[in-house]
């Protein structure tokens, strides 16, 4: 049995272009800074909760958050580029899609 492995050339549209790398880096930096802000809040909250006489489990929970958030923030910041959705031509609910310009129906053999 012989299988045809010939593939048609890929057709790209302008809307398939990924975001610029500078925008992606800026997005990851903002996400990292927000995580570090939450970490700082956990640390300050743990100190204030300990001074105010809050239950020990609250202080421990805030300290654990302050300890593990840097690791989580670094993993997400270094996770790579965000996936970009591909272009769809049709109605927003996805019921009917129009063919992309340049596509031809495949001829079965």
Can I get a quick summary?
50% of the residues lie in helices and 0% in strands. The protein has helices spanning 21-52, 56-77. α1 packs antiparallel against α2.
Model description:
- This protein has 109 residues and is an all-alpha fold.
- Helices cover 50% and strands 0% of the residues.
- It is built from 2 helices and no strands.
- The protein is elongated and about 75 Å long.
- The protein starts with 20 loop residues before the first helix and ends in a 32-residue tail after the last helix.
- The model has no long low-confidence stretch (mean pLDDT 75).
Major beta sheet summary? none
Low-pLDDT stretches are: none
**Distance N terminus to C terminus?**
13 Å
Strand content: under 5%
- Molecular shape: elongated
Total helices: the number is 2
Name a few traits of the molecule.
about 110 residues; 2 helices; single chain; mainly alpha; about 50% helix
Topology:
Elements: H1 21-52, H2 56-77
Helix pairs in contact: 1-2
């Amino acid at each position: 049995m012989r299988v045809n492995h010939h593939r048609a050339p890929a057709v790209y549209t302008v809307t398939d272009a990924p975001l610029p790398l500078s925008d992606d880096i800026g997005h990851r930096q903002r996400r990292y800074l927000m995580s570090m802000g939450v970490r700082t809040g956990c640390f300050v909250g743990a100190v204030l909760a300990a001074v105010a006489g809050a239950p020990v489990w609250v202080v421990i929970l805030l300290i654990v958050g302050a300890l593990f958030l840097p690791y989580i923030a670094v993993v997400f910041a270094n996770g790579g580029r965000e996936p970009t959705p591909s272009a769809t031509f049709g109605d927003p609910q996805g019921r009917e899609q129009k063919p992309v310009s340049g596509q031809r129906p495949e001829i079965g053999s």
